[in-house]
Amino acid sequence: MDDLAVTLQLVALILVGVGGYLLWRALKARAHRRRLETTPNYPLGRLSEIETLPERAEVLAETAAGPEGLLVSPYSQTECVWFRVEVVHHHYADETGDRLELTPVFDLHSHQPFTLKDVTGSALCRPHWIEVEHADLVHDRFDEGAVPPTDALSPPHLGTDERGVCTAGTKVAGPAALTPGCTFHEWVLRPGERVFVRASPHRKEGGVVLVGGEDDPMIVSTHNEQELIREDRSKEVLGYTVLPVALVLLALTLLLG
């Protein structure tokens, strides 16, 4: 009975840890939702017409090529207006090889401006400080034994049949069920994609430019505002529920023990 009580207490403690993480995520989701709900929506044409631009604005528009034209993503060679690449190194923590660690090597995105268009007008989007949600994952590849690249924007050596969407082929090996190597991920925003954008509008060279800041980055999502708000509310409900339940279970296991 003592062993059972200890086991239940450990399970309850794990649930409390999970609940703490979910609560932290719920608080972030609430802040994200409140920003969305308190930021006014504008057609792009209206933004270009008003005399005093708002500090923050939300628009729903389609992506298009910027002044420099369309980009080509480095791994999948996909035509796009924006891309992000991530490289993660899978390596053993020490010489004994008994524990595998995942170390981020690169997490980079393109900074070239692109255009946003709707039926009322257009604006330029400068993605320097940006958070892109629900972008298309167009490359997901694990290279066994690969060493971290020195330049994430230099594409790996792929055959023609390997370009495009690749599924990670990690083999089960070792205590961590992973083998040493590197994982390559790539996400893109394609031209003509309908996106929701929350950013700071500025007027430059006679047109409107949407930008983000270090403390308040631009939000771009392929989901609309209502979908994002529903996602945030789901995270809030889960986070506010799991931790109290886990604490009650922990208290009960301590009393029973």
From TrEMBL:
Residue ranges of domain E3 Ubiquitin ligase MUL1-like in the record: 108-251
Source domain of life: Bacteria
UniProt-annotated location(s): Membrane
Protein topology in the membrane: Multi-pass membrane protein
EC number: 2.3.2.27
Residue ranges crossing the lipid bilayer per the database entry: 6-24, 237-256
Name recorded for this polypeptide: RING-type E3 ubiquitin transferase
Source organism of this protein record: Streptomonospora wellingtoniae
